[in-house]
Structures are given as C-alpha cells and as structure tokens.
C-alpha cells in the first residue's frame, strides 16, 4: 500500500474483499499492520490517514457513511496488480468453474429448442446453473436468428425456429471464482452464409490463442484476432474487444486496452465475435490460462457448429 501512497483499504463484499480473505463482513479494513472485519470501518482507519483506498463496488451511501477525513481513492490501484497472476489453487478453482459452465451448455444441447421462446430457454438454463452449484448468475444470454447480431440482447419472447442461428452464453460464479462459456448452435440447419462467417470467428479465436504466452502484450491478442476478422471482410462487424481477464471477478485485468504484458498465471476470457446487423452474429468465449509453456484452455468443449435436432 505504501508504494501506492495509500494508508488503509476499506472493502465491502466483492472480488477484492474475497481476495484478501473477507468472509462475513460487512466490511474489511486493511492497514499497515492489521486486517480486520468490522461493521464500523471508520474506527479502524488510522488517525491521520491521508489516502484511503475504497472498494470500487461501494455504494454512495456507504462512502458518505465512511466519514473519514482523507482522500478516497479506488482500492484497485493497490489490489488490481496483485490479482493479475493467479496462484495454482486459484487456477484450479477457475478450471472447476469452467467445467461447471461447460456442463450446463452440454445439457443445453439436449433440451427441446424448437418452438420455445428465448426467455423460456433462458429460465431453463438458469435452473441448470443453480443445479450445477452456481452461487451467482452473472450473465445469461439466449439469442435467436437476427437477435444474435445484438451484442447485449436480453432474452425476449422471440420463438426459436428451424433455420435459426442460436447464440448461448453462461457466466457465473462457483466457489468464489468466475467462468464464462459461449457457443453457437444452428436449429435444424444453419442460415445461408452463416457457416462461412462462423468459421472466421473460430479462426480468430485460434489466432488469439496462438499468441498468448508470457512476455507478449495483451494488445497483441486483440491484434491477432482483429487481423483475421479484418482479412475476411467482416472487420467492420467485429466486436469492440477480444476478451478480458476473469477470476474472482467476471471482468478484471488483464484487459486488451491496457499496457499489461502477459505472464504465467494470468487467466483470460478469449471471446472474439462478429455481429452483422439484422442478419446474424456469432461469439465464442473460453477461459484460457497463460502458462510458461504457452496458452492452456481450461475447457474442453469443441467449437464445431452444433446442429440441434429438436
């Protein structure tokens, strides 16, 4: 903390809170010589503290209630660099979360999709997530047909019909650690020209994966993905980013827009996507860990286009 000019940290239940061992809360206070959970954090902030790092998830009323005479700064300035590289036990936890998420998508392939609505299928997937032990569903996407071309489409009443492309993604937290998996299906048969576009997304994924090794800037992953999509002619339809870090939080460092250099132990959700307005889209998301020997995908689910027969 001293290196960041911060005299104390005040955290609420969040990824940072869990990273430092917080359990019950409601707050965790970290000073130069102590770590303690308390309901009255201001009492534990050292007298004369000039800068206090606060949890980025703290609510406005909590910040006002803190009532300390110090500059409040994001605790992430101290903790984000420490969370970039995962310990072996953390990688194992992320791998278990990935296995659970993939298990849900595996079950999704066996569901009856024909004639059901997006929202109905999303509810079924949510139940499967809960049954898998998911502590918190962070995002759940079911998009059919032209809705696959909308990056943030919430499941609606659209009926899923034969000939539709189908984009399904699940993101949740298991035993404190997050995972996301996204796959593309075709209902009965893929739409015209869809397979060609989808092949570009999977090729972009392989390109991004191929450059993930220690010492490589995270931006190089985005460039590798972008070069494949640009070269296919779909460049103007590419997603704005190719991935982000994942671990205790579902969206953390390393991020492509930062100057971070990959190192062993970093976990990354690689998620290239193409969205062609009013037509269709495709996104493939997998969690990958950077190791001394290169990239290691934590999941085993194939990227081949699955055709649903019911």
Automatic annotation (TrEMBL):
Q: Name one Pfam family in it.
A: Peptidase_M24
Q: Which residues form the Peptidase M24 domain?
A: 94-292
Q: Which InterPro entries does this entry report, sorted A to Z?
A: Creatinase/aminopeptidase-like, Pept_M24, Peptidase_M24B
PANTHER family, from UniProt? AMINOPEPTIDASE, XAA-PRO AMINOPEPTIDASE P-RELATED
Under which name does UniProt file this protein? M24 family metallopeptidase
- Name the species this protein comes from: Nonomuraea deserti
Output the lineage of the source organism.
Bacteria, Bacillati, Actinomycetota, Actinomycetes, Streptosporangiales
